[in-house]
Amino acid sequence: MNTIRSEPVSGQSPNIALENIRNFCIIAHIDHGKSTLADRLLEYTGTVSKREMQEQLLDDMALERQRGITIKARAVTMQTQQHGQIYELNLIDTPGHVDFHYEVSRSLACCEGALLLVDAFQGVEAQTVANAYAALEHELEIIPVINKIDLKHQRADEVAREMEHVLGIDADSCIRCSAKTGVGIDELLDAILKKIPAPAGSADDRLQAMVFDSHYDEYRGAITYCRMMNGTVLKGQKIRFLRSNQVHEVQELGHFSPKQTPADSLRISTGWTGSEMSETTSCAFAVVNWPKTRPSRSMASYPPPVTA
Predict the structure, then answer these.
(1) Residue 280: closest CA among 236, 237, 248
(2) pLDDT digits over 106-121, tens only?
(3) CATH code, 26
């Protein structure tokens, strides 16, 4: 696999066809190497230079970096080149702890594929099973990955058999890699391009999007993290958040590359939008535009969270 190193993505290139877009997430038990794998993918695709690279690049909360865990889902847009074509890879890095299973389910709903990551020493654990079945429920293409094969006491062959016995995944289909050293990352990138299907939406259809996370910025208002399912959203466009039934104007938008990079429009991809909302509860997990002459049809939203 040949990779390209380029300037941060300032917007989707018109040369990237819909069939060359891949939307996927990384799912695993806690401490199996999700954030480190995301770091290697960013490095190998040239999204982040070696000078800018640091461990747990997508984990920007102090507690995440201190404890070495992922708490909030993070998205990033990468580009890579193979056989003379440029591909766009939209990754959502998900939490691994059982307490954040609902956050994982929201990320799964926004993807066509998932990298199921398993530690080469610890093997299949509780959240491995839970996340694998959640991905199957969302009908995602699962790519099994055995990580940390550089460990002295790794048992990759045994772990592959565990995955086959517990999850029904062919042991021979497991990709073995070391996110720490970079071994097997080229093979993994190739599998992402070949196995994960392209999104089925259309940039020319009516706007539909799923909001998988959000945060509030004191100066900019609510920033929503969204996956565009259909259509195109533009700056200045009014959109309706289905669950709250509120209408807001998109004041800014862009991609994560991995920092928030402004763009003029968003189409079938992951990205962010900013509006004048004074809090984030109004943008609860489904958004559709509302042009007066062309009302948009509704679509399935997330299930409500389970509370104790």
Answers:
(1) 248
(2) 888 889 999 999 999 9
(3) 3.40.50.300
